[in-house]
Amino acid sequence: MYPENKEEVQEIVARSHKLRVFGTRHSFNGIADSNETMLSLQNMNRVLELDRDNKRVKVEGGIRYGELGEYLHREGYALHNLASLPHITIAGAIATATHGSGDRNGNLATAVYAIEIVKADGSIAEFTRENGSLNGAVVGLGGLGVVTAITLDILPLFEISQYIYENLPLSQLEHHFDAIFSSAYSVSLFTDWKDSSFNQIWQKRLSEPGKSEVAGNELFGARLAEAKRHPVPEQTAENCSEQLGIPGPWHERLPHFRMDFTPSAGEELQSEYFVAREDAYAALCAINELSEQIAPLLFVSEVRTIAADELWLSPNYKQHSVGVHFTWKPDWEGVKQVLPLIEEKLERFHARPHWAKVHTMPQERVQSLYEKLPEFRQLLLEQDPDGKFRNAYVDTYIMGEQ
Q: pLDDT, tens digit, for every residue of 324-353?
């Protein structure tokens, strides 16, 4: 179903027995699945209010980050960060704690000031920082209701220059992890795990208007690329965001891919695990021990940093984190054999899986990683006592049902 406004959402929700909302279909597990009513907010993609005094913007849940980015840029504002893809919806991204990179940048849900939700009976609930419930509700996995409106913090306009460096030895991270990841506003490392090095460093630097910047030819042994690059070595860089140090608007540089292109390398699977920042080098070395098993199944792997937050179901809850992301070839039989090996290596680091990516961790282990899970479960029961918005995924990993 494709409602056009909040009132239509209320009517659909009130008459439905079971319901789940899907966004841009960028989840790789069963988090958005339903055997009954499916609802899309793609027609609810408007900007509702720009509050210049408080530096906030209110939008409908179906708007995509690329669309909002263009609007905010025209008005002289920005968001603190963006994910790799500007094509994803804001409601879907915050519900799963989707993130970009940057030592001081929280995941995308940390920019949320308030959310408006249609509850199971069709009534409206609002969660804000002021009423003290937002930290529990914002990363809600779609279990509390339909997010029809979101209010986000905004910043003054800024520009980014992007540089790519190639061939960084993994060993450089042992003593230079902080220096590498603090070298720019946002930093990503890419590898195919074919050897003990990173193919590329994507460095997104704040660019000061009117001030020329010269990039060094070397960064901890990695060499400055002389042409545009795609994260997957054999792919053309045509659909990637501008590089080579050319300054540009925040919303056109912080993502890895351009809004006007479909960036996928083809059908794929994705996984991601989060570890505490202080464990990152050891965790990467542990993964590297599985390079022979990982590399044949992989398109590319990305490593990013995410600042700590207070959001109950955020993988970055109370810990500065490092996300290790895997974009797999569409071979589920092979991938589901290697995932338990990765998870075993990462168990001692208490790695948390991304809510919207594939993993094979048992429900008890996932639940043990979130100290606020009992409080979230209670919030879920208060807002939706009959489980209208729950599905098999939520029942398994949140409610603990088989």
A: 999 999 999 999 999 999 999 999 999 999
Distance, CA of 216 to CA of 218 (rounded, Å): 5
CA distance 355 to 143: 13
SS3 state of residue 138: coil
> Across the chain, which distance is largest between two alpha carbons, in Å?
62
Mean pLDDT computed over 222-234: 93
358 in Cβ contact with 342 (< 8 Å): no
**Mean pLDDT value of segment 110-123:** 97
Asked whether the predicted pLDDT for residue 264 surpasses 60, the reply is no
The radius of gyration of the chain from alpha carbons, rounded to an integer in Å, stands at 21
Both tokens of 287, joined, read 């993964």
The single-letter code of the amino acid at 27 is S
pLDDT in tens, 12-50: 999 999 999 887 666 777 787 778 888 899 999 999 999
Question: Band of the pLDDT at 93, cuts 50, 70, 90?
Answer: very high
95's enclosing H/E stretch is helix 90-95
According to DSSP, the residues that pair with 298 across neighbouring strands are 328
User: What DSSP element (H or E) covers 149?
Assistant: strand 146-153
Contact between residue 224 and residue 218 where contact means Cβ atoms under 8 Å apart? yes
* pLDDT tens-digit series, residues 129-169: 988 789 999 999 999 999 999 999 999 999 999 999 999 99
List of residues 6+ apart from 316 with CB closer than 8 A: 97, 99, 106, 107, 274, 306, 307, 308, 309
Residue 190 has pLDDT above 90, yes or no: yes
* Helical pair 280-288 and 173-181, crossing angle rounded to 10 deg: 120
First to last CA, the chain: 29
Whole-number Cα distances in Å, 304 to 100, 238, 387? 7, 23, 35
Is pTM, for the whole model, over 0.85?
yes
User: How many whole angstroms separate alpha carbon 355 and alpha carbon 46?
Assistant: 26
Confidence band, pLDDT 50/70/90 cuts, at residue 187: very high
Segment 210-216 long-range contacts (CB within 8 Å, at least 24 positions apart): 213/161, 213/245, 215/163, 215/245
| Count of CB atoms situated within 10 Å of the CB of 34 | 20
Distances (CA, A) of 128 to 42, 65, 135, 137, 252: 24, 21, 9, 9, 29
Contacting residues for 192 by C-beta, under 8 A, at least 6 apart: 199, 233, 295, 298, 299, 300, 301
